[in-house]
Predict the structure of 3 beta-hydroxysteroid dehydrogenase type 7.
Amino acid sequence: MAESTEVRNLVYLVTGGCGFLGEHVVRMLLQREPRLSELRVFDLHLGPWLEELKTGPVQVTAIQGDVTQAHEVAAAVAGAHVVIHAAGLVDVFGRASPETIHKVNVQGTKNVIEACVQTGTRFLVYTSSMEVVGPNIKGHPFYRGNEDTPYEAVHKHPYPCSKAQAERLVLEANGREVRGGLPLVTCALRPTGIYGEGHQIMRDFYHQGLRLGGRLFRAIPASVEHGRVYVGNVAWMHVLVARELEQRAALVGGQVYFCYDKSPYKSYEDFNMEFLGPCGLRLVETRLLAPYWLLMLLATLNALLQWLLRPLLLYAPLLNPYTLAVANTTFTVSTDKAQRHFGYEPLFSWEDSRTRTIRWVQAMEGSAQ
Ligand SMILES: NC(=O)c1ccc[n+]([C@@H]2O[C@H](COP(=O)([O-])OP(=O)(O)OC[C@H]3O[C@@H](n4cnc5c(N)ncnc54)[C@H](O)[C@@H]3O)[C@@H](O)[C@H]2O)c1
Ligand SMILES: CC(C)[C@@H](O)CC[C@@H](C)[C@H]1CC[C@H]2[C@@H]3[C@H](O)C=C4C[C@@H](O)CC[C@]4(C)[C@H]3CC[C@]12C
């Protein structure tokens, strides 16, 4: 908990604070930012769990709002010292239209930036994504790369396009004069695939496995590595960089940082089995039965079905041409830039991250029976 000797005079705003990552950021701030006097949690959908946070020494202000509405964002930002902008539409399954994804992820980020400038908030941390870099549509591997590794970032999908545009806006805004005459200091964090308590895609895999009699079928070769990072460590990096932004503005301002930890480099499916295996699921080897061309055919049929059924219902399976291509392309990072610039070290070990995630799935198991 916070030191009692610290002066509590800072106001933080977390947009998307009720999401998978956002909730962990909110809880981490309350546990590890002793200077907080007020924590504003801004989200389209407020979680009931926020109520339990209102009994502590920090004023927790729940704000139901939409980042696409500039006036709502400005009202939430006004008076905040730091904004952590995690709100976003994370959709690679075709649930939302490209227009909606752009409106939330790009226009929403523009609104946050302009609100900081207009109201005088000087520090902005943006939750970007590995997908700003890749994997690209050509299937080029990114193997243990860092922030300076050359890579042809070519995107066609609305989600990575929107994250790349939003990140660029945030970085370009670094140094802009805010109300009061001081410069805005911004940075962007690029988590790889986040996992942990509350991860909806892990929940989807688990329920798919239950429906298939405790089996999941391998679609991706074990040799394809995909970067994953525990949500608690992503939250920790946000808290840490937000704390260091003022003191290290010249070094950190306008920078991007990959966000990863000591989670092992594995294929996406093998990594998921680290948690789903101990919960009774097994991964069936189907490489001989399901060659890549057949998987791409099934993925394409899923996309066609989604389009045909859209007037009637939302059909959004995990397998589509985009998710298959991404999953099938190695993308892992290895860098010490965040450690060098603001002292980031993972707060949770791999073993602890794994145990916490398994316990969460097991708790789901109890609810699923
Ligand atoms: N999940 C990952 O693997 C991953 C990896 C890298 C980066 N990210 C980024 O992290 C951020 C959070 O992702 P997440 O996985 O927690 O997703 P999430 O969907 O669980 O959380 C996003 C939150 O934003 C809120 N939101 C959506 N539209 C909004 C709007 N118009 N106004 C206000 N709030 C809105 C949602 O209600 C939700 O609470 C996103 O910016 C995402 O791009 C996620
Ligand atoms: C059905 C199989 C082919 C199965 O292996 C598909 C897995 C697929 C759903 C995931 C594989 C890689 C994931 C993405 C990656 O972890 C990084 C992301 C960036 C982040 O900002 C948002 C989530 C995501 C796009 C993530 C989504 C699920 C995968 C595509």
Remarks:
- Residues 90, 92, 129-131, 193, 201, 219-220, 226, 268-269, 318-319, 323-324, 326-327 surround LT3Y6G4Z (ligand 2) (CB under 6 Å).
